[in-house]
Design brief:
The complex is a heterodimer of chains A (about 500) and B (about 350). Chain A is of the alpha/beta class. Chain A has 18 helices and 22 strands. The chains are: A alpha/beta (about 500), B mainly alpha (about 350).
Amino acid sequence: MQAIPVETFCDGAGYPLALRMEGVSKRYPGTLAVDRVDFDVRVGEVHAIMGENGAGKSTLMKMLAGAFGDYTGRIVVGGREVALHRPAAAKARGIEMIHQELSLAQPLSIAENLLAGRLPSRRGWLARAALLREARLLLARVGLEDLDPQTPVEDISQHEAQLVEIAKALGNVPCILVMDEPTTALSAHEVERLFEIIGRLRRQGLAIVYISHHLPEVLRIADRITVLRDGRRVAQLAAAEADAARIVELMIGRAMNEMTIRRARAPGPVRFEACGLSRFGFFHRVSFTVREGEIVGIGGLAGAGRSELARSMCGIDPLDEGALRLDGRPVAARSMAGALRAGLAYVTEDRQREGLALRLRAVDNVLASLIAKRSARMAPAAARSVFHERAAALRLDPLDPSRAAGQFSGGNQQKLLLAKSLAVEPTVLILDEPTRGVDVGAKQILHEAIGRLADEGKCIILISSDLPELVGLADRVIIMRKGRFTREMQRGEFDEDRVLLAANADD
Amino acid sequence: MSIETDNNTIGRGDGRRLRIAWHAALFDALGIYGVLLALVVAGCALSPRFASPDNLLNVLRNVTLLGIVCAGVAFVTYSRHYADLSVPAIMAFSGLAAISMQPYGIGASLAAGLGAGLLVGLVNGVAVGYGRVNPIVWTLAMAFLLDGLLRWFYAGRQLYPDAGTRPGAFFLGLSQRELPGGFPLPTAIMLGVILAAHLVMKHTKFGAQVQLVGAAPDVAHTSGVNVPAIVVKVFVLSAFTTSVAGLLLTSMNRQGTFDTGLGYDFNAVTAVVLGGVSLQGGRGSVAGVLGGVLVIGVLLNLLTLLGVGSFGQMVVKGLVFVAVVGATSFFARRSGRGEP
């Protein structure tokens, strides 16, 4: 899609636009993920979208990529209103996405990846010379002219893969390029190179949508910044007149006051110890302790290795190094079942895929964790009483044991998931994003429940990207960055700004 | 080594990854020819008869049909659809159809034999590609259905080609013919099919598309590859080489029955995976598959020379299958490429 008459499609200030979204909304069951958002990108502009996790950034971008058949509002591309209900429709309008997870096929060569959808061929035979020639041209556009296009993608560095991904998108001659957290895996030096390339593409007239929560980077690369919170646009400002403090304030908003801060309590004895935990490529020499009745929060950016740490502690993923101790006794958590027996429970961040069997009844889900712990099957009456005890405490709504888990709202599914973990009566509870995508009411119930569990003496490890939640619940916050613990803050030393800035701190 | 450098590389992050890669390389690509060499050396040491030209030709002869089947099935595995378990049924169907049509001439007979296979392949491909049915379950179901249909239609009888007619004699001669120099025709066909399949897999646009579908179906889809159409072609290709093998086997047996291709399904998967085609898709080559086929041939030949009976040989084949599938899945998982 080229040759669109951009002259006639301008914003109020007279700049030609590549894209305008007017009052777009997207509803997921139970939540309005994007709520009447206006957004536009000028030709030759980098427009950043910022917001906390769950603010609606990803949903907005998925909408632009044609992932939803049911958004509402108007999207205008190059002066024409378009319906982006299918990925193919977005591509046909010249919208290319570069996802956070790279979409390159590992055993294939760079060249084959770059031209995957339109391999050159002559009478069926792969035209290798043409393939390599075109691949080299694309690589040169992202400053990788030295890279041999025949190299398998699995042999190149993450940073090169990121650039190859951009080259692949450029191959489709986009007019709008959407980049979702493109710097997560890059070092400072590599970020510089990426920014040079983005600068060049901008000068060539490409409209770039840049999603990130790395503040300093956004302030450097963006021309304009749109801040989203709870699915709504709360501000749009020129990057030149923005500063970090102001944006953090906009991202967090007044939410800080809604969250009640858990009152401090006298720390109990140390019960859980993790010493020098490593999993190569994910986290490195991580040590910490949890006292009885303490909530230890682990903060950090997506991809910092927090979930991987949790999964390795519970034996879901392997642990390469280090030891766990509970009450001084070593815990050999080689499997989830072993971890459960030892008294560790893990509440996954992905309730739909890993947490709940959506088609099974609520009661079966809650009791599923007991299978590893008990040798005999539970009598139905006993099962029901366990279910009622757990579910009632979390105010599950409706309190119906035979309803399929998938039929509950997101918040109530999360309650089921927590109930499932509590059914095994763990000593240590590892919560991974316990209120992600949950409405305010359920969130409050879950927060109260977590606080109550700590008061009962459980050791709680809380991984959360929800800053008010982390700051409000935790007795102590540890910041994880690129697989290492970089900072530890005691109650009173941390607030939302400090956690966010520490998570973003450059080494 | 700092975590940053680990994060910044895919696949060659640290010593551990490299070690795994080295283990996995044992099964990758053409590493199988090392195993073949070792077996041949062992064979020469263990049995004086092993290295005779007659015996080596015998090995080739014995794996001829397996090689032809594998040339097609390799594409199914390469596209991450694991295996075509309807192989035995396709072989039986092809043979029976060819014999049934012999009264109408050589052309009709061969067309019926190959057409029968292609039809089954098309049905498999449409069901798996467009219907998104699990390929293992579907092709297994297809095998049962065809088996039942063939028993029912032919009332469980065997069919014999009539050597007195020209088509019958031609059909029986297919498997007996030799090239100048005494090289058996079926084995030459096998080598030709393997070579053609190798070129298709590695040097055509179709081959590259199959690889992408196998390595990353979602990427293939978002890159504009028509994934279901590729899946259909893969199953049709598999069925085509399988029906060629079915015709030759029927000719060799001098009869067509409903159980003609018994055992070829798992033998084929074993050889394909042994030959380095990854069950995770997108890795391997047909040249490697030939190595896998030859390893199985040499192994069974050696066992025969050492006096191990056919039941014992089945146990060995089973063990090889279990070991290969287990080991490749294990290493793929350790190196982070497998399914969780």
